[in-house]
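Bug: token stream looks shifted between consecutive jobs. Job 1:
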Amino acid sequence: MTDFFPSEAPFLPHEAPLKMEPQNLHQQPDRHGRPFRILDTTPKLLWLRRLFVFGTAILLTGFGVYKINQVFNSLGVSTLGVIVLVLFAILGFWIALSFTSSLGGFASLICRGGLGLGIQRTGALPQLKARTAVLMPTYNEDPTRVLAGLKAIYDSILATGQIDAFDFFILSDTTNPDVWLQEERAFLALRQATRDNQRIFYRRRHQNTDRKAGNLHDWVTRFGGSYQQMLTLDADSVMDGSLIVRVVSAMENHEGVGLIQTLPVIVGGRTLFARMQQFAGRVYGPLIAHGIAWWHGSEGNYWGHNAVIRTRAFAEQAGLPHLKGRPPFGGHILSHDFVEAALMRRGGWAIHMVPGLFGSYEESPPSLTDVAIRDRRWCQGNLQHAKILGTKGLHWVSRTHMLTGIGSYIMSPLWLLFLLFGILISLQSHFYHPEYFGTKPTLYPHWPRVDPVQAKFVFIGTMGILLAPKGLAFIAMLFDRAALRGSGGAIRLFLSIILETLIGGLIAPIAMLIQTSGVISILLGRDSGWNAQNREDGRVSLREVARGYWVYTVFGILLAAAAWSVSQALFLWMTPVLLGLVLAIPLAALTASRDVGLGLRKAGLLLIEEETAPPPILRLAAENDRLRTEAMHGPHQPPSEAFALLRTDRTLLDAHLGALPPARKPGSAIDAHLLVGLVKLKEAPSLRTALSKLNRQEKAAVLGSAEGVALLENLPE
């Protein structure tokens, strides 16, 4: 490379269109001669693994139902007893399936599995033969933060000596015009820092149709023909270059594989909540991921990022149709990743996960509030899958993925119902007495009666199955010396698991009510919208927390009063749930605290290997973030407002003008926001007046027009 003037190179390469049509969910797909049931990369005896996982879960559930029936219906069948029995069967199978899957994960971890497809953890890197596009979608995010992570990925791939096999695309769906111009400036700075005009590209969609799925669709149909694979990222993704090379090589060597999902490990947490999330993800996450990969086999899932996808397979099978009806259940598909994986597998492409490779990272939202906002959108997307379950030609495991996604949110209201019906049974036993004399005298009344001894055994057994994966993860960590040392040793690891379990247990009833309210609002027809994810851990005032969580405290107090009025035993039995709800406000404030999170880190608790002994990719990311922070606090800060930024940075202005789309042709669609914005600019006596008159859509429209940019350039201050 001899030209290091990033503003003079085009923002995008030459287009190489690839056809991508919406799939018909009501007819079988065209598999182009590929097999469906057993693929070339399907592990041997996979059916036996699945039989073990589901068969054992069914047996455990059946035994639990038998025991719970003895608890509530020991003297006969009743309505409340049957309801509780059905709820327990559903909830029991849910936790039993998680337990049996974790047993497979434990075996895989101990045996150093979790790879397949010829992938090696160590040794010389394979040589790549085809081109791969690294795709970084972004939506109203801090561009300097996003591109600091992307630069770390670039530098890590560069260190492998195979940078020529990769191009990098920043795919913006940003609607905030100020952020848009900051993205362009950060993009040019990235080109300058890497001295690379030929591999780093930027594209912003002026109409962000179908959100992230539409963003990728637009790239595939414009540029996908030039790349055999694409690596999809999220705005907070960081991936090691050697991991990327190994996974891409596996895809090149297995023509029937359509997608390879890596295991993203959460890092960078500073608040107590984020550190709990990253600790749980690092300690329990591998066990869970190894478990599902163990029985998913070639019918794996896609988590939306940190995955390598065969571009042709994606274009051929993963075009998403719009669902009939209005949001929240109709319209474009929100949780697109599960559906895209299911459609690709339906088309005869293998979907694999490789949890045995480390080097794939992401971040956690900093607080319970931020998770609740994100979960509301995920909840709507997962419930929307109910309309896709009947798609013709889906593999049964793909349907299981969708049912699991739906269940992850439906279980919260079911747990709440189980709790409330349990209270009703106790209330009935407390306030109603048997009628020994009637038209047909009987010795035994027909209502649910609680057997306290059996209830204790059921509770102990249920908690054992629920907590067993944590115990298995602890044992597995004892066999991984590096991870154990990075977590502070066996004693600190054990104490951290206890701490995370206790605080997580207190948060669980709050999360249950949050998810239940989300499910109810979706069933009432309320759309979640699309907001940018908060990734910063700024301080939250106690007043703000109280405003968001007082309702859970009130509900907990009312529930405690109801339990106490029935019996002290019931009150004590429900104490873990009641305590979490009553303490909702201080819990939310405590877990959102950065000081508490960092204090526990200093105490050697909730540690993970990636922070005590960071791998090279995370050191690169940390250094980039340090430089970014220093630049933010430097003496010469560029304006954050888009008009001012363009007027003070001629290089950015020239590059921006060169990247604008062609002017509107006669007869094409009319942009009302642009017309109104141009009129307002022409009538404005000054830049300040123009800014006060333009709304966000109009401002973005005039910035996307050469005429609009010329007008604002000539306006006086």
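Job 2, same session, no restart:
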Amino acid sequence: MFSLFKSDPTKKLRKEYDAKLEQGMQAQRKGDIKSYAMLSAEAEKICSEIEALEAKKPDNTNRVK
């Protein structure tokens, strides 16, 4: 009933993922390839967490409106 007010945990992770990609891009532009690689690895880890959460999410296609 009150699922409308529950926050989506993937939303926060998507923001973190986008921030890591942005930081990685800036590091790559500066020529810091080591930091770029570390930030990209962290972004991939966050991406896998997002995919795992989305796989657990129930399918709402049969929901009564």
